[in-house]
Amino acid sequence: MKIQSLAVIFIIIILPISIIVSEYIQGQMQTLRLQISYDSKLDDATYDAIKAFQLNTVNSSSSNYADSKLRDIEASVNTFFNLIATNFNMAGYNKDVLKDYVPALVYTMYDGFYIYSPYTNTLDEETSSQITPGTDTDIKYSDGIRVTGLKPYIYYSCRYTTAAIDVVITYSLDNYVTIQGTVNGNAVNKEGYVLDNLTATKDASGNITSITYRGQTISENEPLQQERVGNAIYKYIKINGVKYYQDIDGSWFSLFNGTKLKQDSMGNLTTDNSAYRLYEEAVELRDFIIGNGLNDLTPNDAVIPGDSRNIEDDNGNIVYSFTGEEKIFDYNTTGRSIEDSNSNFNQHRLAVIRYVIERNLSIAIANYNNYSTGIMTNFQMPRLKEEEWDSLLSNISMISFLQGLNIGGKVYNGYSVVNNNKNEEVVTEESIYIVTNDNYYHRITDTNLVADGSNIIGGVLNIDLERKQIIDTDIGNYNDANGSIRYYYPKNYLACYNCIVGQGSINNIGDAKSISQYVQNTGNATLANVYYTTLARERYSMYKVSRDSITFKNSFKVNH
Amino acid sequence: MEDTLMIVIAIGVAVVLMIVVPFMSMADRTDDVVQLTLETALSDFVTTVSTKGEITQDDYSKLVEKISATGNAYDIAVEIQFLDENPGKKTSQVQSTKIGENTYVAIYESQFLEQLDKNGKITLKEGDIVTAGIEKESKSLADILHDVFLGASDNSSYIAVDSKMVTTNGAS
Q1: Residue A380: which domain range?
Q2: Which of A11, A44, A257 sits opposite B164 (nearest CB)?
Q3: 20 to 30 A from A429, CA-CA: which of A262, A359, A477, B20?
Q4: Is A60 near chain B, with CB under 8 Å?
């Protein structure tokens, strides 16, 4: 056979093979490209949804209340679907189709979380009988029908039982806990921050007379804070999530979604003792825990099913086990504070939060298989990476899942985790800025704050630097008869160029296990006092669902 | 005679292998680069609008310029969804600009261009949604080669789409 013939035969064999291999690789590349594109669309939609939640809550003075918060989350869910539909619409998917590929959306809040997913509506006989057959309500919400919506709020809580103790402890994204149940047969209900480094002086009858935290004496009578509303500056006190402003004539008002709401029963408050109260509550909680033997509780006392006592990472390694015998409330451990990130308490707190989210979410996604129609996908919860859990457990976040879309070579199974650090829900150690007398605000780790504390004039919460809006015509020196929306900045400070705009002058917290410890290590007493007071004030004045608003508000008047 | 036929076939195969295949491959890679350029340009435009809270004639012209530089003809479709300030729900906690609850009023390409030409810019507010897409108008070299040699090309109309929510109010 001649060389030409051999060449042609060789090419006849090789050419189809190379074309097929080339097409296969092209297909794989296309699949990868689609996957990246879908990841990006999902990230964008999730980011915008949590941003919508932030904007809605910062501008809403009623967002703390449960029904209003539900509205804000539902609005955020709508934004998510709107954005994801807009992003995918031109690629051939529309909103209704895409809904079938989203098994769950999760909103992690301060002390619990919401899951948005389908569920079977269950009504009792009495409620069912009140629905008129054939109406819109009957079609959408009758007994046994599939409804897609927010499921009831799930707390980050865990039950512990010993011979004498049967309590449920609800954890939060910071050190705040609520303890409810029975100890030695007596009902208990206690809440507060788990802190040590506290020294309390008590009088003969056991009442606390002074408190120092990390060596700083906390003032019981801090002056009222001041901020802008519109063009005018008012003194204010924040109680249970609501700011009460003192008007020019001495009367009090609050803002209700941008309009003025008179408060007739505020009395004559002249000082704010929120910070002091937080530490006082922390001392009482510590005494309560130690006094009732709750400090002997161990992870092994947690009531958790035997098959899920280990928490594993995405490689299958055990990162925490609910079988340990170490004490959860490890107060007064030599060389370590209970507030440290590596304390038994904090390790256990994060493990409980992670366990509760993981378990409920897996169930919701697995159940989605019963609700999905016409989609041949087995919906399963993907394993989140450790850094994603770190992000989830540090502030409020949103997790979105998108599964089952055909992307050529395989079925798309993606999720997105987006964290939000400017919200009304959580006051983290990083969310407090320090204000200096040149009207600039600084990150707490700014190197320039360490050496000299003489120019420090106060602390500020990051969301108070965000723009707000008012509508009313007679507040803030606006005389606008039209009642149009006006924007203003409550705390009108400038961002430090070196530590906020750029990151050139920021200290690493080094060996410190928390920012509070870093501040203590700086040795700057003014900085420490301002920081501890501001952090405590802002944390104590946050809305807490367990507090009765009216009683709590009145307690401030009694104390002054 | 047999030798001549083999030589002709060999020459034909050689031409295909040495000219057409590399040429198609090169055209495909060029299309990939163009696709990336278009996606980047579109993403830049949408991100700028989302963070600035306004669409200026300058931003739009830059987008058109970047897209035209690829040498093909494309149609740019911009859609803006304005958050309607009429409350979406009747409740005592009404907030006039609840993102995600209130309805949207959309304007499309022709209205968008008309407003942009008239005012030089379009001011947006928090919660508005801007979407931009690029649609093929002409066939690229890779499309033509695919049509000729394989009898099929990728005929999907939109080759890049991006959408974002506006996160700041534009200066009026």
Answers
A1: 3-153+345-420
A2: A44
A3: A359
A4: yes
